[in-house]
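Objective 1b. Sequence-to-structure analysis of Acetylornithine aminotransferase.
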Amino acid sequence: MSQQHPDRSVFDQVMTPNYAPVDVIPVRGRGARLWDQHGREYIDLAGGIAVNSLGHCHPELVAELKAQADELWHLSNVYTNEPALRLAQTLCDLTFADKVYFCNSGAEANEAALKLARRKAWADVGEAKHEIISTRGSFHGRTLFTVTVGGQEKYTEGFRPAPQGITHVSYNDIAALEAAISDRTCAVMLEPVQGEGGVRPADRAYLEAARRLCDQHNALLIFDEVQTGVGRCGELYAYMHYGVTPDILTTAKSLGGGFPIGAMLTTDDAAQALIVGTHGSTYGGNPLACRVASKVLEVVTRDEVRANVTARHQQLKAGLEAINSRHGVFSEIRGMGLLLGAELTPAWEGKAKLFLQAALKEGLMILVAGPSVLRMAPSLLVTEADIAAALDLLGRAIEQVKAETEAA
């Protein structure tokens, strides 16, 4: 039975319990602002978990989506379509890639990358060369393959037996990677900045070592840029900041600006392993998604957008440091571009959700990255005024948490 304005209780009645959303139900968004069912306004520094790269309902994206909706929605991969071809060409022009595979999400892009790595090694050498190295604390998606490659055991609990041949090493640890890699390794998969793992940027020397070791052992280097890509970290993709080029790159989240799309970018040499029939996606290369994503790339690559990411990064980081000078709740503030994490001090360890909930009560949406890190991933177009207002609300929320904790 439908309701005109369903409330949070309906979720528990009709949705599977794998999520626990807050009581607030947003119904409208513009830029970095959201409004809920009761008309209350919020500043959004969560960005749909780094998805809404241009904020909510960006007029240029809305116009492209409406225009494509009047022309063509879906075919199948028996055919190609103009928006997909244009987007693939743009991605190749803007990056190292020669070939692109489209899908619907970051997990699907990572699944494709891992399957490609194994299939290329199988074609070149044989089944013995199948091992994959990833890092502890990493997150690569929720399929059984990607959740196993991800370095957080809690996500595989209850789903074993899991795919085999996967090794996890400490992030940013060159010696550990050197010890783990061998001629049986087909791929090393890394996030240039660990997102779910606490917003931890890689050291340049670490990524350079990964590139060297992959070359030495004839393994593919995969960069998971689902969260770091499409301008999020300042450059179009974070690998450009480091000057280390992967063999495969995965992208999603910000690529569609809120419309579901994912892509795997790779070289001619690696792509040849995916011969006809070896992989696919029913909705991959959907004309609606591809047309919107092309507009996202057009906007994100404008000089003024990149300048705004740099300026707002500096403003947000300085503001978090100022808050910390008053309240002393953060042990470290880190990140790149508009992907920032504030790690809580040992005294507040495990209590990140308290701050998230308090912020929401103040009218601010933020994220967590694990139990002890507050994460912010706002629109790349977020304004100076919005960041200033958000910092004020966050300061109030932290004050409230401290007061309630001291009174308890």
